[in-house]
Write a structure and sequence with these properties.
20% of the residues lie in helices and 27% in strands. It is of the alpha+beta class. A hairpin with an 8-residue loop joins strand 2 and strand 3.
Length: 262
């Protein structure tokens, strides 16, 4: 029985999502909790590998249940009662045996939050990046637009394997300003390690007149042009949408990228 669990979490207390020895991770906490209820070791597949401190409003795992003694409703109840308060269960369901929470994702939407105005809310400091000076939204949009389409992102990432392909497609980008907070969003099927944070960093470098649009274009063409990379802070990054064609309702092509709700 292949069980799919969808949930949201705050990543501030975790060393990322992928299981690590002797460190609290999202996958580790879920597998430990599931192992207790089934009284045997449970292994899971996670939808994405997120960095330490990164949060998600839409995340998923799937695992092969050892037996059918527990109803899905009971499993959902047990998880909600047993997991820490910074993890919220949204859905527990059975899926086909060949379903994978990692490989069946059609696209993901990430959003990066920046308190960009002169007035900063300190209560949001742990969830946003707060630059020293106010930012120019038009300049950020100008550089952000360059990342749409198919490009070589090797110089805007840190590939985990030598043979990992760095040529990927970003379907759409957007920047919205609401109450002094910039929401920078990226939509695509897959992303490389640190890619979103380096892309945001490049936008910030351009806004600060420390990186040119021409240099960004050359880097996206795979040219090794020297530049000072900036990896944006992790706490402001949120994975806010996963779309699975096999189980989700059909999505509109022009759906808004910013929707920070469960």
């Amino acid at each position: 029985m292949n069980i799919f669990i969808r949930f949201a979490f705050s990543g501030l207390n975790y060393y990322g999502t992928q299981i690590q020895p002797d460190k609290p991770t999202i996958q580790g906490v879920l597998e430990d909790t599931l192992s207790r209820i089934y009284n045997e070791k449970i292994r899971s597949t996670i939808s994405s590998r997120l960095d330490k401190g990164v949060s998600a409003l839409d995340f998923a795992i799937n695992f092969q249940a050892p037996d059918r003694d527990f109803s899905l409703n009971y499993l959902a109840y047990y998880l909600k009662r047993s997991l820490p308060n910074d993890i919220f269960i949204k859905e527990v369901r059975e899926v086909s045996d060949d379903f994978s929470s990692r490989y069946d994702v059609k696209y993901k939407i990430y959003t990066y939050l920046i308190q960009a105005g002169e007035r900063r809310n300190p209560l949001l400091a742990h969830l946003t990046y707060q630059p020293v000076k106010a930012l120019d939204a038009d300049k950020l949009k100008e550089s952000l637009k360059l990342f749409e389409g198919k490009h070589d992102f090797r110089y805007f990432s840190k590939p985990e394997k030598e043979d990992e392909s760095t040529i990927l497609t970003i379907d759409r980008t957007s920047l919205h300003n609401k109450n002094g907070i910039f929401y920078i969003s990226f939509k695509g099927k897959s992303f490389l390690r640190y890619q979103i944070r380096f892309l945001v960093g490049a936008c910030l470098r351009y806004e600060q007149n420390r990186l040119s649009l021409d240099t960004i274009k050359k880097l996206l063409n795979g040219e090794n042009v020297p530049y000072q990379k900036l990896k944006a802070e992790p706490q402001a990054l949120i994975l806010n949408k996963l779309y699975y064609p096999k189980i989700d309702k059909r999505q509109k092509i022009d759906e808004p990228l910013v929707n920070l709700s469960l």
